[in-house]
Amino acid sequence: MNQTFEAKIWVLGDDIDTDIILPTEYLALKTVDDMKPYAFSPLRPELAGMIKPGDMIVAGKNFGCGSSREQAPEVVKALGISCIVAKSYARIFFRNAINNGLLLIENSELHDAVTEGDTAKVTPGEQIEYNGKIYKIESLPDNLMEILDAGGLVNAMRKKNGL
User: Fold this and answer.
1) How confident is the model over 120-162, as pLDDT tens digits?
2) Full domain range(s) for residue 17
3) What CA–CA distance (Å, rounded) separates 5 from 94?
4) Strand residues in the chain grouped as ranges (E)
């Protein structure tokens, strides 16, 4: 997961809760793929249709607050988001995202510097390069990186148990 990648930036604000990420009324749909078109719809109905695989979200503080629904990080990953960079995360969302193989990065400065539609170069566990400036980022603990590298907790446990 230490592979550098470049990603188009989508900017969201503070307190993006799980009802914004995926509204309750769409939880009854059969698959996460069925839910994808409704991601972020209360805030920006067009956003899910504009996100391309490999894009990234840069958000403010308290991303993923609200209910602990696992479909919220699942639908973000299903959209093809490579990572979310936020000032801070709700802790249950953080673990749900990691368990679903979605890379989350905390950085308090990037959100206030980026422009939506620009690109950034991300080296997980090391830095983000944006507009000629380097933003240092902390690496996640090895056990969480193993989960991310495996594509999620279920795959990591299968690998660990030789399945």
Assistant:
1) 999 999 999 999 999 999 888 889 989 999 888 988 999 888 8
2) 5-160
3) 21
4) 5-11, 56-59, 83-86, 103-106, 119-123, 127-130, 133-136
Cβ atoms 14, 60 nearer than 8 A: yes
Specify the CATH number for the domain of residue 155: 3.20.19.10
Distance (Å) of CA 105 to CA 71, 75, 97, 158: 19, 18, 11, 25
CA distances (Å), origin 48, targets 18, 37, 75: 15, 5, 10
pLDDT of residue 110: 98
Rounded-to-integer distance, Cα 124 and Cα 5, Å: 9
Q: 0.85 exceeded by the pTM?
A: yes
Side chain identity at residue 65, one-letter code: C
* Low pLDDT (below 70) residues in the chain: 1-2
Number of domains making up the chain: 1
Token pair for residue 20? 């914004």
Give the per-residue pLDDT at 162.
82
Tell me the sheet residues that pair with 128. 122, 135
